Amino acid sequence: ALGLFTGIGLSEAKARETLRNGALSALLRRAVLQARSALGPALDKATGTLLYNTAARLKDPKHLGFLVGYIARREILTDLQLSAALEYVRSHPLEPLDVADFERSCGVGVCITPEQIEEAVEAVISKHRAELLAERYHFNMGLLMGEARNRLRWADGKTIKNEVDLQVLHLLGPKTEADLEKKPKAAKARLAPAEKQKVAVVENGDMGTETQSLLEQLRGEALKFHKPGENYKTEGYVVTPNTMALLKQHLAITGGQVRTRFPPEPNGILHIGHAKAINFNFGYAKANGGVCFLRYDDTNPEKEEEKYFTAIREMVEWLGYQPYAVTHASDYFDQLYTWALELIRRGQAYVCHQKVEEIKGHNPPPSPWRDRPVEESLLLFEDMRKGKFGEGEATLRMKLVMEDGKMDPVAYRVKFTPHHRTGDKWCIYPTYDYTHCLCDSIEHITHSLCTKEFQARRSSYFWLCNALDVYCPVQWEYGRLNLLYTVVSKRKIIRLVETGAVRDWDDPRLFTLTALRRRGFPPEAINNFCARVGVTVAQATMEPHLLEACAREVLNEQAPRAMAVLEPLKVTITNFPAPKALEVLVPNFPADESRGFHKVPFHQTIYIEETDFREEADKGYKRLAPGQPVGLRHAGYVITVQNVIKDVSGRVIELEVTCTKSDVAEKPKAFIHWVSVPLACEVRLYERLFLHKNPEDPSEVPGGFLSDLNPDSLRVVHSALVDSSVHSARPFDKFQFERLGYFSVDPDSEEGKMVFNRTVTLKEDPGK
Q: Where does the Glutamyl/glutaminyl-tRNA synthetase class Ib catalytic domain start and stop, copy by copy (predicted)?
């Protein structure tokens, strides 16, 4: 075999590498032997290259002999012709091929004369004559080559290049010293900082362009996904005699539209990983002019609740997406049952009585009922539907082996639980393995996008659609998104709630979508985060601070400024310049005053942060201290300490100060925030819920995730003060409290006592 491969021009190293690939070497051996039988034992290198490329690039080996015949007869002579031939057989999976159409598509028998090449190049140069004379040899000659090739598709590339070189030389003459100098690179236009910030923000699910947008990442060409109706071009897709007719019918129904679906189970709340799935499914459809269904996979009535249905749709819409239609797997229970009967009639499914424990894992014992008569399985399946079997006493199983080696997955099981939507109509319910692909088929989904762990189910997906002769979509897998310092599994979150570690599914320390919304994360920030993670096949595990950075970018643009004091220190201005409170205009966004102002009262009694005063100013300390005045932000005044009042324990409880207008006072070292005539509020400050990056990893946390809880994950400030400009704020409204961070109004807020959640600090904590 080594001699056989080196005999067609492969180097010894390349031949040995080929031999290590059993499938490739077997195909290449067949190709070489077939060509030798037609051309003799000595094959030239050009023929050998064509044979190697055929064996390496051919997706379906049944066409090998057909293609090698054309190479051996010297009817396919160039790699360009071979590429067209390979694309043709890939696009026409059914036998027999239309030979005349194939030969037209591959340029078989087409003879391009030197005169034709000369005329084509002449026409192209004439078209670009002015630019060529101006730019001379700095002109992009590849453009001339490309246009000439477009005019003469099957012409030899080297011959075209030689003709281009010859005619350019004739037009321009030999290269001069100026022609040999490198062309200076055009300077890229730089975005102004404000523009950079602007394009990073997302609106209604549409991404900006600073980082490549999610929509750009999801264009069909970018992902190399198949076009609607061209499912058969996908590697591994199973083609049956009915495939092309079913695809034609599918295209007639969809009009060639991209269709995706987001299929959550309504037994829990969506988390940050689902945000990527939502963005991927809805985003791919949107990017390619298609539609996306929201389909609830409601096949497990024991765990489904109305609150989950509602919360899932709410979160999808909160992220900026509108489903084309909201459907349920249960909408199709009647059709699924009819198809189950048909599967049994075709000998592809049977009723089995093995216990759940017996068929768990990847190597369970074969079912002794696998070969029971079709009529018997039909009767028993009907008995299952009528409730004559108890739970676990009978299942309907499909006759196939999955990619991970699992044999005969269950299609239906008995459950005596009323269904959320169908009530007591059914006591048998279909499984994911049975339901998912068939619901995709019913809805004419073009791209069934799911996370990588479902790759092992791809073979059963294709098998079941083809076993029933129904339209078969294509399943594509992508890497799931995980975050460090958290848990997202439903079971573990329930344990956190039950043990009192968190309040509920929307506790702001969790990374469920409802929790992120409650904490104040804007949906645009979550979409931006998903865009930055990208659409990867590999699993992505990210640090929370990357999500926080996305939140800061968006909130900096969206959250109006206000002033709040977490640890108030009373300050009395003894020479206040007015008999009553003054009104101070504060810009909502100091960097852009065109976005408006709000008024705050300025009274002789104000409150500042305790940490903004020291009795002794250390070196480097620039805020308020005896002998060291500070400015009051937005007020136009500088204050100076006159008297420090303490309680019996020596704690400072009040300052008496005098004020001077900023325009006459010496410029202070610092300006601090303050409040006057404020509103009392509660502020909740959040930190990570877990101490370790991977709280579920026994090697990192031997005691289990509940032993890894951070005792300082929540600090409640009960007596904070905020300026009165926020008095009409509603739950989920967001503000930047100057110098403190970004905060969101919590739904726990009541009349007279607002509650704020800190979303993120103004700057990233270097420790994180």
A: 257-556
